[in-house]
Amino acid sequence: MSGVLALACGSSESDATDGALADTTATQVDLGPASVGALVETTATPRPLDLVKRFVSREGFEPTLMGLEGWTNSEPFTIAERTSQGEVVLIDFWTYTCVNCIRTFPFLNEWQDKYADSGLTILGVHTPEFDFEKKREGVLKALERFGLEYPVAQDNNRETWDAFENRAWPSKYLFDTDGKLVYVHIGEGDYLETELEIRSALTDAGRDVSAIPIGSVNDPPEDEAAYYLTEELFAGYSKVYGLGGALSIAQIEFYQDSDYVFDYVDVEIHHFNKIYLQGPWLNEKDALIHARATTGLEDYLFAHVFARSANMVVEFRGDTPYDVYVELDGAPVPVEGAGPDLMYDESGASFIRVDESRLYGLLELEAFGEHRLIVRSDSDQFAVNSFTFGNYVQGP
Fold first, then answer.
1. Using CA atoms, how far apart are residues 182 and 312, in angstroms rounded to an integer?
2. CATH assignment at residue 127
3. What pLDDT sits at residue 353?
C-alpha cells in the first residue's frame, strides 16, 4: 500500500482546545520529497490481527453499542441480539463529510448486496466530526446520496465511539456468531482482505458462501507518479490547534485569539500543508467564516498542494445558496480536471454552488501534480471546515 495516500480521518479529540489561543506560536514546516520515507514509517497503520489482540487481551473488554439514536433502515438492536440469532455483525464507524469514509461506501454496499441474505449484518455508526453533522437531516441526505441501505444509527454523543475506544474514521469491527471480535480494520483499503474475513466468519457460522463471487479489488490504483500527498487541512481552531491539525493555518494572527475576526494579508512565499488567508475571516471552533459580503471576490483561501483530487467541506448557513469560485494555478479549473460538484459560468469561471452542508468535490485531475489552489466567495455565509486530497486514479 502506498505511503502517500491518506487512509483515515483522525479523531477530533482536540475539541477541548476551545479556550483562548493567545501565547501560541505558529511554525511553518516545509517538507520535501526526501521526507516521504519518514512519513510512511510514522503513519503506518497497525495490522488487523495486532488490533484484535490489543482488544481481546484486556480482561473484560466488551465493546458495545451505547447511546445510539436516529436509527435508519432498521429498528434498534444490539450486537448480542444479532449474533445470538446466528448473524455476523460488521460495525462501521463513519461520518458523511469524511472522504476516506466515502471511498469505502461502494465496498460496503457490495457486501450488503452479496452477504445480507447469508447472515451478515452491517451497522453504520455515524459519529460526527463537525457539530453540523449531528443534524438528522444531513445524515438522511447522505444515506440517499451514497445509496446506503444497511442499518445506520447516529452516535452524536460519541458513546459507542468511546465504548469501542475508536480513534478514526472509517473503522470496521467484525463480530462472529459467538459475539467475539475477530477482525479490526482502521482506515480505508484492504477491501479484499476484509471481505475474506467476512466470508470466513460466515463459513464458520455454517453459511455456504462458496457460490458468491468474491471482489477483485484490495486497494484501488493510485497515481504511480505521486511521491507526496498534501495532508488534510483543517480550518476550525479546535482541529488546527489540536491533535492532528498540524497548525494548518499559516498566518500567526489566527492563533492570537478564538472566535474573532482578523483582516488577513496574504504573503509572497507559500509553504505547502498550509492555508493562507486574504481578507477578514472569523475563526470558529469548526470553521473559518468569510466575515464580510463582497462584490469582487477579493477575499480568498490559498493552498499550495500536491494531489490528484481535492475536496472541501463546507457548512451551509442561512437559506440562500451561494457560489464559491475555484482556481487552479491562477486560472479556472480545466474541464477535464473538474470534480463532480464543479460548474462553469458563461465566462468560463469554475465554481461550486453551496446549498447544503457536506463535502464538495473540487478537482479530479488527469494526473498527480503540484498546484496552487484558491477558493473565494462574495458571501458572508461561506464557512470552510476542511480540505482533503487524494491520489487515486479515479474518484475523490
1. 36
2. 3.40.30.10
3. 98
Q: Name the one residue in this structure whose C-alpha cell is 487481551.
A: 57
Q: Which three cell numbers stand for residue 392?
A: 487515486
For 373, the grid coordinates are 489552489
DSSP bridge pairs for 312: 360, 387
- DSSP single-letter state for residue 113: H
The Cα 385–Cα 239 span in angstroms is 10
In a domain, 3, yes or no: no
Residue finishing a domain among 172, 204, 236 = 204
Residue 338 is assigned to a structural domain of this protein: yes
Residue 152 β-bridge partners = 72, 124
Q: How many CB atoms lie within 10 A of CB 28?
A: 13
Q: Which amino acid is at 206?
A: G
Place of cell 444479532: 82
- The per-residue b/e assignment along 252-272, b for 16 or more CB within 10 angstroms, e otherwise, is ebbbbebeeebebebeeebeb
Instruction: Kindly report whether the peptide bond that precedes residue 48 is cis, defined as omega within 30 degrees of 0.
Output: no
Q: Which of 129, 104, 93, 162 is nearest to 11 (CA)?
A: 129
pLDDT in tens, 32-58: 333 332 322 233 455 556 666 565 555
Is 349 contained in some domain?
yes
The three cell numbers of residue 65 are 453499542
DSSP 254-301: GGG-SS-EEEE---S---SS-EEEEEEEEE-SS-EEE-S--SS---EE
* Residue ranges of the chain whose pLDDT lies below 70: 1-6, 10-61, 242-246
Residue 164 sits in the same domain as residue 236: no
- Name the CA radius of gyration of the chain, rounded: 22
Enclosing H/E stretch for 112: helix 99-115
Residue 196, in any domain of the structure? yes
For residues 239 and 285, the answer to whether their CB atoms sit within 8 Å is no
